[in-house]
Fold:
Amino acid sequence: MSFARVAIIGLGLIGGSIGLAVRDELSGVTTSGFDADPAVRERARERKLADEIHDDAAEAVTGADLVILCVPVGAMGAAAKAILPGLSPDAVISDVGSSKRSILQTLQAALPEHTIIPAHPVAGTEHSGPDAGFSTLFHQRWCIVTPPEGAPEDKIAALVDFWEGLGAMVETMDPEHHDKVLAVTSHIPHLIAYTIVGTASDLETVTRSEVIKYSAGGFRDFTRIAASDPTMWRDVFLNNKDAVLEMLDSFLTDLALMREAIRAGDGEMMHDTFSRTRAIRRSIVALGQDDPRPDFGREHE
Amino acid sequence: MSFARVAIIGLGLIGGSIGLAVRDELSGVTTSGFDADPAVRERARERKLADEIHDDAAEAVTGADLVILCVPVGAMGAAAKAILPGLSPDAVISDVGSSKRSILQTLQAALPEHTIIPAHPVAGTEHSGPDAGFSTLFHQRWCIVTPPEGAPEDKIAALVDFWEGLGAMVETMDPEHHDKVLAVTSHIPHLIAYTIVGTASDLETVTRSEVIKYSAGGFRDFTRIAASDPTMWRDVFLNNKDAVLEMLDSFLTDLALMREAIRAGDGEMMHDTFSRTRAIRRSIVALGQDDPRPDFGREHE
Structure:
């Protein structure tokens, strides 16, 4: 089986990119879209983020065999309730959220009669909203599918095919493990970035203007992900608390060791750590998960 | 006054970029270069990083009216001793290191009869060595000049002119303040990046291969600066200990508050912080200190 009509609920960066990618890469598949914000719907119509943009969530999912919820994690429950009246009994309900265990529970509670197969495309930029999406966002990026026990194999396979059709590589994983992996590769980096950018803007001895001027020393790298959508990220931390705290405590232990090395002048410990971390960067670039050009390919004109 | 002959000691990313930039942008100024590593000198000759590459540091500075030490902070003292026999009494000795107070003390102790005017171009990439430099590295970047009390005004002005000639914007500052500003905008970001990349590669519950595969969720951003030169960075932390520890403790205080917000489920505190940090990013982009394109301009093909 494969999907013929995809409903996209939430037309920001990810939802909009899915709509544009389906149009560009999956011929014969039609899309319908909905967003709770009328201004977003208007912009979505102008950008043609889906073939049809509806003013009502239940109408948007009518006739769809795949429904993808592209809303903040904390809005999943309300979105599920809003689409229920229009849902076909055979439709697969999926999503793109960054914490899978809580979303699976929420969706199974809201839609107990339906097939729920959560997914998470590990892709994005720091921009958000209906102007941020583009059709190649998922190329060469991983999408993690986290089917619950007993989910129909043909529907799982169809969802995997769908994401591969958008250019992604797909891995399946159980939701608990997904949440630990993403805590390390995404949630803690965002938490650290948000925190250090906050720290730097409130110092007594260094002005905010100085922080901005001299940010090319490394700080500016952190400001990119610290410019991500605040509501989306609040919801991620509220919904992946256990894994985030576990990984945060590992980081804090290591940072305390590093602090002690600096205090004690232990250059050997520092040099050892700083040498090991280079290898990870090389592997990420070799695997096509980052730009091989220096400085992320930033322009130096 | 202006400089006619510039000696560059150390031909890695920064030294090599200075040589290439002088050739491209300062007509009439000649360069001579030296590196302690014979393999680097050979590559520097092939890339023509300076007009002349010498096998002896003292020979390289003979006749130079500006000498720029482009070596790790911990190697400044040895480099100063090595050039002394060839130094002209009127030459200005400068450098490009990332901690100014310790370098000023080291150079004044090693070269008590000479004019020392430290400087720090806040520019770079994660690459290092003689192949890493390029002539536009300093364009639109700030260079901080930290003249000691009593340094001759005409020589300070000539050094400012030199850096502006390479495309940089120049600010003067006292060395202590420089060290605090750079602790925030450069040293702490590097320390955090090195630490989290180390943490992520040693976890029990998530494999290194998973960290690499799903790094596009944010982690990969940190791996770039964690791929910087280990010796250079060890020396920065050994030589800017006080300011780094002060700023690190501010960050740790804020991170503890954020940890508590996650533990307690305080979504309002998180949303407030995450909203404020967006403004800093916008200011950095508006000031030309980062690429305005989403995702640093990384390619999404």
About this structure: Chain B touches chain A through 112 residues (CB under 8 Å). Chain B has twelve helices and nine strands.
